[in-house]
Amino acid sequence: MPHPHTSPPHHAPTDRSEAHQDASGEHLTILYRGPLASCDYDCPYCPFAKRRDTPEQLRADRAALERFVTWVSQQTHPVSVLFTPWGEGLVRSWYRRALVALSHMPHVERAAIQTNLSHRLGWTADADLSRLALWSTYHPGQVPYERFLERCGELLQRGVRFSVGIVGMPEHLDVARRLRAALPAHVYLWVNAAEGRSYTDDEAAAWTELDPLFSYSRHPHRSRGLPCRTGHSVISVDGDGTVRRCHFVPAVLGNLYDGTFRAALRPRPCPLDICDCHIGYVHLQPLGLYDVFAGGVLERIPLFRDLR
């Protein structure tokens, strides 16, 4: 296992990035969230529901995911996929297989997943690393620091694109500083503002030293009436194929599998007062974050990696 400071060749953003395709209306970015809700971690600050999936629920999640991957394989336009499971997907073999399969589809520009990196990473050897990416989160108290850092080192050795993040709790600051110092400069360390927490300017400054983009997470964004890519070039899909513009707007646009969603795709403003989650506000056009994250919107990797 190499030391995490080693810096093997890192896949640069391709010209087929999200930022260059959305204007044409041909590229479709999909945030997929199936029924999976079980997780091997139990973080006290996590707003997601916690439960153990039954064998029947796991089988249903597997079938839904396989149906989705089949649908993607049948498309002729460019597609990017981010899996945003309530639980941890990579401990389930079908998510690993799905990412590998998607990464080898020539019309798929990015296949990414949000993960805690708790599972072994050998499966990445079967993927096309020009398309695979991991949005990884370190959860202090759930995994030893050294083990998480080893996983990051293995990703570097394997040449996998990834970002690393942490929730901005006061008790996480020291270990976040330790993690930032241990990771190569080109690995972006993002910080999410803790749910329902406000930050003094001094507190925010400490987190901004680690993540120069922390200001985007610190305050909810007033979004009502602002143009947003969701519902046009970005959609949210659940396990039965129900399509919404994003995870946070409940209105249904149609269904993926009968094609009814396509007639509803168009530029539209946000209907909500605020947007306070990165997977939502990154698509708000006035924020300009497609330029900041060009080539890495789904995996949360900025174009300019050394932001310090």
TrEMBL record:
Residues 12-23 have a biased composition (Basic and acidic residues). It comes from the Bacteria. Residues 1-23 are annotated as: Disordered. Residues 1-11 have a biased composition (Pro residues). Gene3D superfamilies: Aldolase class I (3.20.20.70). NCBIfam families: rSAM_STM4011. This is Radical SAM protein. It comes from Actinomadura miaoliensis.
